[in-house]
Each structure stands twice: as structure tokens, then as C-alpha cells.
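User: I'm putting together a teaching handout on how multi-component assemblies are represented. Below are the sequence lines for each component of a complex, exactly as they appear in our records. Could you produce the 3D structure of the whole assembly as C-alpha cells, so the students can see both representations side by side? Please keep the chain order the same as the input.
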Amino acid sequence: MLHINKIRENKENYIELLKIKNIDASDLIANAIAKDDERKATQQQADELLAKGNQLAKQIGELYKTGKAVEANVLKEESSAIKENSKALQTKQVELEKEIQDILVQIPNIPHPSVPAGKSDADNVTLKQVGDIPVLMDGAKPHWELTTDYNLIDFELGNKITGAGFPVYTNKGAKLQRALIAYFLDKNTDAGYTEYLPPHLVNEASGFGTGQLPDKEGQMYHATEDNLYLIPTAEVPVTNFFRDVIVKEFPIKCTAYTPCFRREAGSYGKEVRGLNRLHQFDKVEIVQIQHPEKSYETLDVMVQHVSSILDELELPYKILQLCGGDLSFTSALTFDFEVYSAGQERWLEVSSVSNFEGYQANRLKLRYKDENGKTQLCHTLNGSALALPRIYAALIENNQTAEGIKIPKALQPYTGFDIIK
RNA sequence: GGAGAGAUGGCAGAGUGGUCGAAUGCGGUGGUCUUGAAAACCAUUGUACAGCAAUGUACCGGGGGUUCGAAUCCCUCUCUCUCCGCCA
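Assistant: Of course. Below is the structure of the complete assembly, with chains in the same order as your input.
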């Protein structure tokens, strides 16, 4: 959510920049400012009345104490009238505040000026491509066949006990998954991130804090009996650690492994086959809270960090800068990572690294004190480092050989084996 | 699941109708002292909104009510803790 004062200060600029996201926000913004003007006026009137009321109450107290009950009763009547008026004004103020909020949540984050225009993912800009596209042997297979052939994942068993999109990992397939989690966490903690293992269910307030609620309610599994939500990403619990916090020192760096639960209604076919899209999947997330002046520098460092992991895993990958049309509602600037999955001959998104600037922080009330002692919004950033299933798919597809599936060197200390036969 | 207790500033903890945005202690910040540090002492130390400012208003878990006046009384919701039960 954007801050109304920031909108006031940068009105024209914001409207221009939002065009990059293909959004004409001029009506929303004008409306928000008009309502806010009204809110200010209402508050001034209300404050004045309340001040008068407070004063009267004090006088009445004094009069009673000195035994002047008659005079007190006169003032009482005046006080009652004031009370009624001020109450009406306060109600109006609360209503206005809600209306303003309702408008503000409809305005997406302002994209960074460097964000290229564009309508869809087709307009994203490839910044660089690293690694060679592997040339596989004849008869190379997609991962959903390999996982069956080598007895790594039992999709059928998952269907039986839960449903589609809930795979069961077995044998070396399970070990490989565990190895990837441990490896990613180690890479992140080595880079200075503090490891957390958060709850996998969160309350309603946390859903609001990171913006899943109220809009994207359908994306999350909801345990209605206890009104808790299964997390769609570790970003939700981890970012909410810092809800209502005034930060003393920058940066704050967190990493967490969690399963992620997504209802993901409506998508079919080859795109979502096998591991490509799941209702439950594992992900290791990195989150940073940073001073506004340093957040873009940090974004670059985070991109570097994710790159280094993919380098070590010897996976060919592309870094894309998302165009305005593909940028998420809350993001100001996002880089996507896609790895090449040779068995499917497709690029698969495995990480998304974003700077949300103060957009999340405003909703979270995540702030710091500047050199003048004024509270300011922190900037928040996050990224996947990394999402498991598609990495897993690319790893086994790209490394399939006549002898078996080879494990990259970096991962071998974690798997304890160098080939799956 | 049953019974009980509680929720106050960064933390601990007082406050049961006006003198309370709130005692006191700890912590934080600034200063005095010191070669430096510690100790001691002095000062300062919540957030938001409105206002150029002076200042005003709101906030003592959330919401509602009683009252001229509520941290304090009433209703309601949420959460936490303790004991019992169940259980990895």
C-alpha cells in the first residue's frame, strides 16, 4: 500500500510511472486525495470539539468539588451536545479513513523508472543468459518419466492420499530433495542470512500484513475451524516477524525453508505436468529489510547471490527483468530467473527477486528512525533461493545419461551419492 | 476438552471514575566525572493524525456501552499463562 502523503507529493510522477504497469491511476489518486482532504477537515472540526469537551469535563469536575452543582448541570448540557456532534464527526472520519484505505489498496506499487514497458511476459527483457544448453542423448526424457523410471517420485501415491499436485518423494528422490534444501540454506547462511524455521500456518493478521488478504484469499488453503492459513511462501511468516517493528540496524537478512501451499485454481496440460506446478512444494526464501537508500544495491547483491547458486549447480539460466505488465502488484522491480529444462526443452521460472520499496512496509508498519528522529518506512526485498521442484526437474533432465542421473559436484556432499542409477 | 488467572510504554511493573499519556525500576540516548571504561550523578526517552508553529486530538489487547468525565465500571471478541485431561 502506498502512503497517501507520498502520493500527494509525487502525484503526476506516480501517474506517469504507473502507465508502465499499463494502469491509469489518475482517477483513483484524485479520489484518494480528495477524500483525504475531507478527512483532514473533518479531523480538525472533531479535534476542536473534543478539546472543548475535555475542557468542560474538567470544569464540571471542579464545580462539583466546590459544591456548585447547579452551575455544573448547566455545563453538563452543553457537554452532551458537544459529545453528540463530535461523535458524528468521528464516525465520519473513520468512514473516510476506510474509504481512503479501500482506494489505496487498489493502487499497485510504483514501478522503478528502469522498468521496461510491456503487456505480458513476452515483453520481459533478457538481461543475460549463462551456461550452455545441454545436448542430451537420444531418447532423453522429461522429468515426469525419469522420476518414475528411477523411482524418485510417486505422483500416483500422492493422488491417492491427497490429490493431484501433492507428490510423494521416495528413496534417492527424497534424499535429493533434502539435499537441495540443506544446500540452499547453507549457501544463504554463508552469505550472512539468519536461518529461521517458521510455522507453516499463519493467522489472519499475517495474511493482511503481506497482502494475501483480503484480495488473494482463494490462493491460500484456509483452516476455517481455527481461522489459520497455510502459507503460500515463507515470505508470509518471515516478513510478518517485522510487523509493527521499528528497526534499529540495517540490513536484516533472513532465510527460511518451508513447504509452500497454493491452491492455484485453473491451469491445465503440459505446462503443469509433473513438478512444473504443484499445490505443495518446497522453497527456500531470502528476505531482506533495508534502508531505502541501499535497497537497489541490495537487490543487485541478491541477484548475484541467486546466480552464484545456479552457477554451482551447473544449470543454464536466464535473468529477466520483468516488464511493467508482468510485474506483480506489490513490486517496484523484479528479476526472474529461469533455468533450462532440457528434457522438456523449456525455460522454467525458479526464482523471482524483488524490491518492494516501502509498499509492504507501509502495510506492515515496518519503520526506522532517520537522522532527525522521524519514523520512515523501511524497504523490503525478497527472493527465492531457491524454489525446489523446477530446479529438481531441470537437474534430473539435464544430467540424465546412459549410466544414470549425475549429481552436480556442489550437491554431492549433501546427497552422499554422485549418480542415481 | 475442563477449571482458573491475566493482557498497561522497548522490558518489568504500579495504577480500580477527574489531579493519568500514565508512578517506579531496568534498558536506550545525551551530558558531568575519568587517560579510557565501569560505577555514580544529571537530563532525556511511545506512536499516529491535524497544524507553519504554539499546540490540539486519539491510543493502557480489539470492538461496543454506561458517564459531564473511563486504563479504571459493564458487555463482547481475541490472545496469553497456570492446573487437570489427551497426546508426539
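A couple of points students might notice: Chain A has 13 helices and 18 strands. The mean pLDDT of chain A is 92.
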